[in-house]
Amino acid sequence: MGNTRRRSITRIVAYTIGLTVITAAIVFGAFLAYCLYSPDFDVAIVRGPSMEPTIKVGSLAFVRNNPENIGIDDIIAFDIGKESQVIHRISSISDGVIKTKGDNLEQEDYWQINRGDITAEYLFSIPYLGYISSFIGTRLGIITCILVPGFLISVYIIYLIIKEIRSKKEWKLYNPKMY
Question: Does 173 lie in the same domain as 146?
Fold first, then answer.
């Protein structure tokens, strides 16, 4: 009696944990989709160590586009050149000129920006998720994301077929008159 009760409690706990993990994954997925497709938010992969330890290399940084109230010590994103975006902390503002500095750097950046150059304000980051995102964007990553789940599903289906065949054979052994 005690073993049965313990098993049922274990099942309830496992079911609750599983349901919680699935719910959290769905909520996170919905939030990520919202950030990716909303014009108010953007996502950037952190490729350099200039903002460590605040933002680690390989993190996925979430930013809010078109920030309104920006001040000293805020972390902002701005473009340098055509294809280079920088995420740094504002170190000083003087006569409309903004100077920035990476947390891991000893000196301020050599460039000067204006409020109009700021594209976004940093919200938060998720460490190492940028590495995964970068990998998925490659040809090997796409192939991996298709083949691995396909292989696992195929193995599971084969397992179910073998299990069903074995149960039919066992049923035949115990009920020979039925066949």
Answer: yes
pLDDT digits (tens, 9 = 90+) for 123-146: 999 999 888 888 888 899 888 888
pLDDT tens-digit series, residues 6-59 = 778 888 888 899 899 999 989 988 887 887 788 888 888 898 999 999 999 999
Q: Which domain holds residue 29?
A: 1-37
Residues 94 and 158 in one domain: no
CA atoms 144, 41, 51, 27: torsion sign: negative
CA 44/CA 51 separation, integer angstroms: 13
Q: Does 155 share its domain with 119?
A: no
Whole-prediction pTM: 0.67
